[in-house]
Amino acid sequence: MKIVNSWNEWDPLKHVIVGKADNCCIPPPEPATDPKIPKDSDMKGMHGPRPHDTVDKANEQLDGLANILKKRGIKVDRPTPLDFNQKIATPDWEIGSMFGCMPPRDVILTLGNEMLEATMSYRSRWFEYLCYRPLLQKYFDEDPEMKWESAPKPRLTEKSYRTNYLNEGISDEQRLEMVKRKEFVTTEEEPLFDAADILRMGKDLFIQNGFTTNLKGANWIQRHFKSHRVHILNFPGDMYPIHIDATFTPIKPGLIINNASRQLPEDQKKIFYDNDWEIVDAAQPAHNEPPPLCYSSVWLSMNVLVIDPKTVCVEASEVYQSEQLDKLGMEVIPVPFRDAYPFGGALHCATTDVYRDGKCEDYFPNQS
Q1: Where are the beta strands (DSSP E) in 209-277?
Q2: How far apart, in whole angstroms, are the C-alpha atoms of residue 259 and residue 299?
Q3: Is residue 66 part of a domain?
Q4: Partner of 200 at 20 to 30 A CA spacing, among 66, 222, 230, 348?
Q5: Rounded mean pLDDT of 219-224?
Q6: Number of structural domains found in the chain
Q7: Is 4 a member of any domain?
Q8: Backbone angles phi and psi of 311, in degrees to 5
Q9: Does 362 reside within a domain?
Q10: How far apart are CA 78 and CA 150, in angstroms?
Q11: The pTM is what?
């Protein structure tokens, strides 16, 4: 029985993993996370288990998403949470707690019949793949064509990070200049990538180079998926370039919404224009600030889950994004999800594909 198949972000969704908020922690400071928390964030100096009431609210909305998908005939699986509030260590480092298993999109990349465990670039997320092992083993046992792979686990020593990157005294302008120069917190010591930095568009993979994925990680992906074409994207307007799916979101073949504050440079747009794709500015977020204790920006508004080329799930309070997608010809399914934002992101983050109807297509035949 074929269980695993997904080549892009928009083919009809039939089977998906939805995360859980159980036992989620704010991890202690570490080299990967320190520069990613804005200087005015309420998370500065915070770590330990998240409050029980916030976990309950997040799980209620995650369960709500799962039920909406099930009612549309989509099979939903859930990860197995660990006790994240415990010290973990390798021979190179130790950290006081882990993170959680709300955002499956970060950890597992599904491409065709393969599910690939990403390296991850946070020490606190080093063991997160274990939450998905029961599901991956089940798919492997039941689907004789399923390929189960794991990228090489990184050491994440001090050499993998820039020392004192983006210290307290640096200005926003200086931060943006460093990003424009492609100076990120992660170095090129070893291959690093989070799966949420990769957009799947048939034969072409578009990978954001930033805080969570380095060029060596993108190179590893190119060598691993030899029949695919890999393209590196950068968004110089993003002071915290972490995960591409709140910056550059494909909605259906030929259409992408781009974060209005994080424009893709013109030279990197060429491949899209040469193949008759339209890139439009995403609608403005409905909120001026993220929820309390949230890593992410207000641009989670555009972190949507496409069900098929005519249908998309949008966070219920993000009315401007819903209105824009409605005008672009999509049926919009409003999903209350703002209480889940602090646990790792919005609707795209909170899911990872297992099966979408479709095959590997070439959406970019014109390439110079």
Answers
A1: 229-233, 248-252, 255-258
A2: 7
A3: yes
A4: 66
A5: 98
A6: 1
A7: no
A8: -135, 135
A9: no
A10: 20
A11: 0.96
